[in-house]
Each structure stands twice: as C-alpha cells, then as structure tokens.
C-alpha cells in the first residue's frame, strides 16, 4: 500500500511540473503536444500574427500596432487557473523592467479570458506589463495553436514570429538568455 502511495505522489509531482492544460473548445486543433519547460524551434517562423483588436486589463483597445515601436516582443500566454503561470509573473515583470531600454516589450495574453481574475492576479503579483484579453483573431491565430499554458512566443516589430517557442514556466535568467540570443540574431 505504501508503495502505491509513493508512486501516486510521484506522478502528481511530475504532472505539476509539466505546466497547465488550457481549456480548449471541442475540436480545436493544437499545433503542439510537447512537454512543458522546453524551448523549441518553430516551423511557423516568419509568419505574421494576424490583425487583432484585443482589450487590455483596463478596457483599452489594443491592436498589433503595439509591436511597431519595439525590436522584440515577448508574448506570454497564461491562464488564471495555472499556478506556474502566476508564479513566473514576478520574473516576467523583472524582464520588462530590465529590457525596456533595449527596444523589448513584454505582453501577457490571458488565454481563458477572465478579466476580473486576471486583474486580481496581476495586481497581487506586481505584474504591470501589458496584459490582454484576446479577441477572436488572437484566439484563432495564436492561442488555439497550443494545448497548454504557459507558453511564450516572440515576434519582431512587424508582428512576425521568430523561431523560438518556450513551453512551460521559466525563471528570469532563462528568459533573459533567450532574449539576449534573439536580440543578437536580429543585429
């Protein structure tokens, strides 16, 4: 009996380290079934994110024009139900502060569209970087590509996807190395 408890506990711990599932609409295809906490190259690199008109957590309309003033934008897709997503927010905030003078911006997208919960969570975590409630275009052209959160993608000033996807939560140092590498590649 004790052996089964140990095995069950091990499975629960390992599944907790893999990130969170995203609630998807039935029949929504996911482009990836990888495990969390990995970085991979994206075959969709070079594609431009379709036009969108989302709202931020204050109710302001935001379009893909937000990419224009930055060399690099880190887009972190997260859910209000996802512990690892919430835990990485202070590190993501630190990235926003560290890289803002280097033409890098950070954006969060709330995959489950829960505005009030997102406001509470970002306030509690001190996350002042831009967070968006996605419109249908972002849901169809970005969020539906993934079966899990958190996931982070990077785009250039035109909204063109770069070839890096980060699956699962990361810490400041890991994201910082990825951003430095992407900035070096764009020079």
From TrEMBL:
Gene3D superfamilies according to UniProt: Glutaredoxin
Subcellular location: Cell envelope
Regions crossing the membrane: none
An example molecular function term from Gene Ontology annotations: oxidoreductase activity
Pfam families per the UniProt record, alphabetical: Redoxin
Chief site of localization: other
Keyword Disulfide bond: yes
GO CC term, one of those recorded: cell envelope
GO biological process, one term: cytochrome complex assembly
UniProt cross-references to InterPro entries, sorted A to Z: Redoxin, Thioredoxin-like_sf, Thioredoxin_domain, Thioredoxin_ResA/DsbE_sf
Domain Thioredoxin: 43-184
Keywords tagged on the record: Cytochrome c-type biogenesis, Disulfide bond, Redox-active center
The name this protein goes by in its record: Thioredoxin domain-containing protein
Upper taxonomic lineage: unclassified sequences, metagenomes, ecological metagenomes
